[in-house]
Amino acid sequence: MTRNSGVLFQRRIFAYIALGASLLFIIPWVAMQLSDQVQWDETDFVVMWLLFFSFASGYVLLARRFEKRKRWLVGSVLFLTLIYIWAELAVGIFTRWGS
């Protein structure tokens, strides 16, 4: 098995990421059908899809440059950054991005 034969090095990984990001939005869509407390519009779906896709794609591109042992660190930093940006957009912890 060569270094570039893993799933991270396949081109179709980006299609899987796009599909996965799209499938995640079944959760808020169903929540919108069941409750009035979840109120997303089209912009919310687009922004969150772009966030998920860009961070997951960023992980793939960065992980390709690191050894397998260090990929968890790359993933952890990107995941924490994603959570922070999502929280800022949702409620504005330190800024008024979400307001």
UniProtKB/TrEMBL annotation:
Transmembrane segments: 12-34, 46-63, 72-94
Domain of life (superkingdom): Bacteria
Keywords from the named record: Membrane, Transmembrane, Transmembrane helix
Tagged with keyword Transmembrane: yes
Keyword field contains Transmembrane helix: yes
Record's protein name: Uncharacterized protein
Species whose genome carries this gene: Aliidiomarina sanyensis
